Structure formats: C-alpha cells, structure tokens
C-alpha cells in the first residue's frame, strides 16, 4: 500500500458523512480479507498536506471532508518490527471505538500513532486529539507521531503547558494534531475554543481514569451531546480489577470494542521482559500541604455522617478515593430497599456528590499541583457549588 495525496477534498455539496462511514466500513472488510491472505507492512510517505480551514456557512455543525482515495487504504509502518497483536489491535481501533488494555511496554504508543496518522490522511481537514494526564506520556506520543509514522511537526501542537486561552484558541484554528491534558480539553470544549466540528479522532491515555466527573468523562459527554461523529481510542495498562469498574469506563467513553492482552497471553509473551520498577515519591510543597489539610477538614464531617448512618463501613477519610466512593455509592443504591430504608436517599446522594467532587479536587492537588485544583474548584464555585455544600453541612 502507498499513501495518497490528501489534497483531493470532496466538495461540500457532495459530502455525505453516513456514506463516508459506510465506505470506510467496506474498506475495513477489504482489509480484513487481505489480512487473511497475509499481512503486509507499508512504508510511510511523509508529504505534508496543506488544506485551508474554512467555515461552511450552509452546514455549520460539522466539517468532515474525507479523501475518498486515501480512505481506500490504511497504512502501517515498516520502520518498526511487526508484532501481530499490535497490527490486529490497530486494525480494530481504526474502525471501532476501542479500549486497548495492554501491559506497560507492549506498544500502546505505536497503536495510537498509527490510528492518528491514518485519520490524519483520511480527513485532510480533520483534527486529531491525544489527551494524557502527564507530560512524560504526552512527550512519548509526540515522539512516536513524528519519528515513527511521520505526522508533520508543523501540523502538531503541545498544549499541556501553561498556554493562555487566546493562544490555545489560535492553535485550534491553525493546527490539526493536538496533545493536551484532560483538563485543557474539557475546558476548551466547554468554552467553545475547541472547534469540535472538525474533530475526527480522540485518543485517551490512562483511560481507567474515566470515572465519575473526571475531565475525560466531561469532555466526552459534551462531545456526544452535540453529537460529534468521531473515532475514540482509549488506552490503559490497568483497566481495573472489577467488571463494574471496566464497564463504567466503557460506558463513559462510548467504547464498542475491548482489546485486552495480559503478559501471559500467547501473542505477547515473547515480548515481555523482566523489569525493575522504582517508585519515586515527590513531597508536596508547604502551600499545597496547607490547602490539602483544609480539604481534609471539609471532607471529614461528611464521611463521618455517612459512617454514622451505616453507608460507609470503617473507612479512614484520609485514604478514600473517588473510585472507592463510586463503588460505595453503587452498593448503597442496591442496599437501600433492604437494610437502609430509614436513610434519606436525597441527603445521602448529596453527600456522595460533594465528597466525590472534593476528593477529585484533592487528587488533582496531590498529583498535578495547586493550579489545576484551583481551576476545578473555581469552576464549581461558579456553578453555585458553595450554597450546595453549605446545605449539606448544615
């Protein structure tokens, strides 16, 4: 296979998204048939497309111009060793919203890069977003996109740093491949800065975090409310030990296919090597410690109330997490008609809502610092959260 010139853009009047989706499905079937006859890696042609991003006044909702010729093929790199499981997972992820659960070091980065590159080819005006909660993960993906699959650097931008909203707004208009934090993505979608009508592919790293009100969930909810027809690829090394937890991630991210491999699966065993893990603990600064203590002071009486009425059993409020609270809340809902009939349902749901939000902000503070926690708290205050907390604590 060879890459095709992405400049052959279909006219607005002729474009039909459903027809384009059907065409890609047909291509998928053709690729599957071809795979049965033998897999083939394809070199990457690194020519940079130069489309102009123009508003479509007649159809302002979406701008999904598909390169019909490019969409007949998908490209896999020859400059890396071929691993069957990576090839197979990539093919699935191109045509279904997929949750990829692979142990660390088995190549989730490559899978994401290949999916991003092919959507870059297929949709010459489309925008592709890679979201990750930490800068090292983002930098790893940027390197793979540039050096392995050859996405041109002039089309990409790293927006994980302290870029101002006006600067980000300019990049959303002029770039095509974006590397962002979940918080930046959620904020820009909510504010309208992110041009959602151009989005064709969203890659979510550390997807197991997509629980409750985490930024991933909020961002996807807003996209689906529009709705935006885009491909979602979710990546994780730790999908969760409970079926309920995994299902919550699948539901929150609108996943239709799960690709799971463990270190003992036959197709990955030969690539698993002994490794040494060193845990480095970073101590919070004095200001962060002081703020964290105030959060704990606010959390303690709410946990005490839930403990007193039997909803939480012998829990140390200092060790609870948003994930645990979601599980406890679900257990409460199931027990309500049995041994908790004396409990006021609305009050307990209110306690859980406040606690989950406070613990989430607390986690932002301990993992990412004061600014992300402050921004989330500020947003909640603007939503009238203060009066609600006063009511709960009264």
Automatic annotation (TrEMBL):
Q: In the record, what terms sit under GO molecular function?
A: 3'-5' DNA helicase activity; ATP binding; four-way junction DNA binding; four-way junction helicase activity; hydrolase activity
Tell me the ranges covered by the Helicase ATP-binding domain, including all copies.
89-257
Q: Which GO terms describe its cellular component?
A: nucleus
Query: Which InterPro entries does UniProt cross-reference here?
Result: FANCM/Mph1-like_ID, FANCM_DEXDc, Helicase/UvrB_N, Helicase_ATP-bd, P-loop_NTPase
Q: Where in the cell is it found?
A: Nucleus
Which Pfam families does this entry report, sorted A to Z?
A: ResIII (PF04851)
Q: Where is this region: Disordered?
A: 32-59
GO biological process terms, alphabetically, are: double-strand break repair via synthesis-dependent strand annealing; interstrand cross-link repair
Membrane spanning stretches: none
UniProt keyword terms in alphabetical order: ATP-binding, Helicase, Hydrolase, Nucleotide-binding, Nucleus
Q: Which family does it belong to?
A: Belongs to the DEAD box helicase family. DEAH subfamily. FANCM sub-subfamily.
* Record's protein name: Helicase ATP-binding domain-containing protein
Naturally occurring in which organism (per UniProt) = Vigna mungo
**Taxon lineage:** Eukaryota, Viridiplantae, Streptophyta, Embryophyta, Tracheophyta
